[in-house]
Amino acid sequence: MKILLSFAILSLLSLHSAAQLISRFTWENNPVTNAASGPNAISVGTHAVSSAYGTGSSKGLNPGSGNNDINLVLDGASFNVPALDISVDFRREESQASFFYRGSYFNFGMNGGYLSVSFQLTNGTSALTINSGNVYAVPDDHSFHNYQFNYDDNTGIARVWVDAVLKYTYTGTAGRPLYWTGAGNITIGKDMDATGRNLAILDNLAIQKYANALLPLKLLSFAAEAKNKYVVINCATTEETSLQSIVLERSNNGIVFSPVATMAAAGGYSSINHYQFTDSLPLGPVAYYRVKMINTDGSASYSDIKSVAFDALTISSISVFPNPATEYVIVKMNTTRPGKFRYTVLSVSGQPLTTKELELGNGIQQIKIDLTKTVYQGALFIQITNIQANSTATFSIVKR
Question: What is the pTM of this model?
Answer without folding.
Answer: 0.55
